[in-house]
Amino acid sequence: MLKVGRKEYETLRQHGEETYPHECCGVLLGQMREDERVVISIARAGNTRTDSAHNRYNIDPRELVRIQREGRERGEDIVGFYHSHPDHPARWSATDLAEAHWFGCSYVITSVEKGKAAITNSFELAGSDEGDKKLLDETVEVAQAET
Amino acid sequence: MTKIHIPTPLRQYAGKQPTVEVKAGTVAEALSGLVSKHPDLRRHLYTDDGKLRSFVNVYLNDEDVRYLQKEATAIKESDTISIVPSIAGGR
Questions:
Q1: Nearest-CA distance from B70 to chain A in Å?
Q2: How far is A95 from chain B (nearest CA, A)?
Q3: Domains in chain B: how many in total?
Q4: Which of A57, A62, A93 sits opposite B62 (nearest CB)?
Q5: How far is Cα A51 from Cα A72, in angstroms, rounded to an integer?
Q6: pTM
Q7: Which residue of A31, A82, A101, A110 is the best one to mutate when testing the B interface, meaning the one whose CB has the most B CBs within 10 A?
Q8: What confidence score (pLDDT) does residue B72 get?
């Protein structure tokens, strides 16, 4: 399960609208627990796949090192990543699986249809190594906004 | 001692620790020390023929060691190493 605050949830969805028709990407930071990941903050990242941004994303590892360091200073770990699929379902693709290596983390995908965020799904990267990895559907629990 | 930051997916193979300290003069020595302490990490970092997996990025402070002297890169006392698996994908 992925637990995320309403504000962080809307922010990652909005990111996809801003970068449309290109894929957006970013990092989820928070706490890893036994069977769930709790998102405390998100960090936008740049998509280095400027050659094919409409259907590919890549986060520069150098940027990830910085995000990870800043998260560590706040007591937060990387618990997952998000990206968008412009005019395409919020389901993982063969490319998403092939390029996924953060076992135990959540991979969140938002479909952005004609510039508006539609469905957001999350998948846990399960398995023990590259040979048996799989992305499994997981529940996203969005905290209610504080009043 | 050199501190090596372990990414969340690999901590289960490193005694659940977020960092491991090793004594090393080069990146190669540091990684060798790491897998000596935690042998289960080896197959996740290296291919069967002993090469670092292509999606495993190794950073010395803020620099990718591929653009330094690779695993021969020298380490100073205050340096840290980060192991960072790649993040990519797309529809």
A1: 16
A2: 5
A3: 1
A4: A62
A5: 32
A6: 0.95
A7: A101
A8: 95
CATH superfamily of A2-142: Cytidine Deaminase, domain 2 (3.40.140.10)
List the single residue in A65, A99, A125 with the smallest CB-CB distance to B62.
A65
**CATH number of residue B21's parent domain:** 3.10.20.30
**Domain encompassing residue B13:** 2-85
ipTM, interface predicted TM-score of the complex: 0.93
Can you tell me the distance from the alpha carbon of A82 to that of B90, in angstroms, rounded to the nearest whole number?
11
Asked if residues B21 and B1 have their Cβ atoms less than 8 Å apart, the reply is yes
For residue B62, being part of any structural domain is answered with: yes
Residues pairing with B5 in the sheet: B19, B82
Instruction: Output the CA torsion A38→A41→A44→A45 (10° steps).
Output: -60
Q: What is the mean pLDDT of chain A?
A: 95
CB contact under 8 A, A83 and B90: yes
A103 contact residues in B (CB cutoff 8 A): 9
